[in-house]
Design a protein that fits this description.
The protein is of the alpha/beta class. The protein is 52% helix and 15% strand.
Length: 261
């Protein structure tokens, strides 16, 4: 396995916990000591060696039990399974995670947009060329259908320079929403996208947000961003959103594993 593929799997699964490291270290450290203590007992008849072997055997058994449980969980993650995609209606989502593409507008046009009073005005004048329309449409839709209170933006190395424009635009159009940046990420590097995405998810969960309260947008980044965003919602209660270019419609879906009978 190459380093790159290892990093990808490690990022998807999450870093080893401290307990994982301690358990593996204890198991492989204590097991040889058990054998050596038993050898000492049989060769030299020392009672202390037998007691020591018994204690170490107990510690080894506990570590092995923990490793076994972890192995089963990891094995379940990698087992082949079928998934079904179900369209859902957002209701409880409080956070929207999105990419940020280049706006493809001039500085003058971006300044003009800041003076627009509604998304409708922006759509009518710049709808065909303005690449941020899908983000703004989704935010507007989630505000009306769910409990949206926070926007998390993961820009690219190029689009990070436009984050402040986006933040101010969201504040002007949808007052009361919190906007926060994570990253930036290289949109052509799976590992870099995963690192930024996982960092955002970890921070949100530390603040008390449940996965069922998070929705991830897969429109407006790159194919790599969409793939990673989709993969990191499996298997969880996080929903995905995407903007259909032809119908100009926002679709929300859950990807759930099909239980094998």
């Amino acid at each position: 396995m190459s380093l790159k593929s290892y990093r990808t799997i490690r990022t998807l699964l999450g870093e080893f916990s401290l307990l994982d490291v301690v358990s593996i270290t204890v198991f492989f450290g204590a097991l040889p000591e058990v054998l050596f203590s038993l050898i000492d007992f049989f060769l030299q008849g020392e009672g202390n060696s037998l007691k020591r072997a018994g204690l170490l055997a107990l510690i080894t058994a506990v570590a092995l039990a923990y490793i076994s449980v972890r192995y089963k969980k990891l094995k379940e993650f990698f087992e082949e399974r079928d998934y079904q995609v179900e369209e859902v209606l957002p209701s409880a989502q409080r956070v929207f995670i999105t990419a940020l593409s280049l706006p493809k507008l001039s500085e003058e046009e971006l300044l003009d947009i800041k003076h627009k009073k509604s998304l409708k005005e922006i759509r009518e004048k710049y709808g065909k060329n303005f690449t941020w329309i899908p983000y703004l449409e989704t935010i507007e839709d989630l505000r009306s259908k769910a409990k949206l209170e926070k926007i998390v933006v993961i820009p690219s190395e190029q689009s990070k320079n436009y984050y402040k424009h986006f933040e101010k635009m969201v504040n002007e159009l949808f007052g009361g929403l919190s906007v926060e940046q994570f990253g930036p990420a290289n949109y052509d590097d799976f590992d870099d996208i995963q690192k930024a995405m996982r960092s955002a998810l970890k921070e949100l969960q530390s603040r008390g947000y449940k996965k069922s309260e998070i929705i991830v947008g897969i429109t407006g980044g790159t194919s790599a961003f969409s793939v990673v965003a989709s993969a990191l919602t499996l298997p969880s209660k996080m929903a995905l959103s995407y903007y259909t270019q032809n119908a100009k419609k926002i679709v929300y879906v859950n990807i759930e594993p099909v239980e094998n009978e």
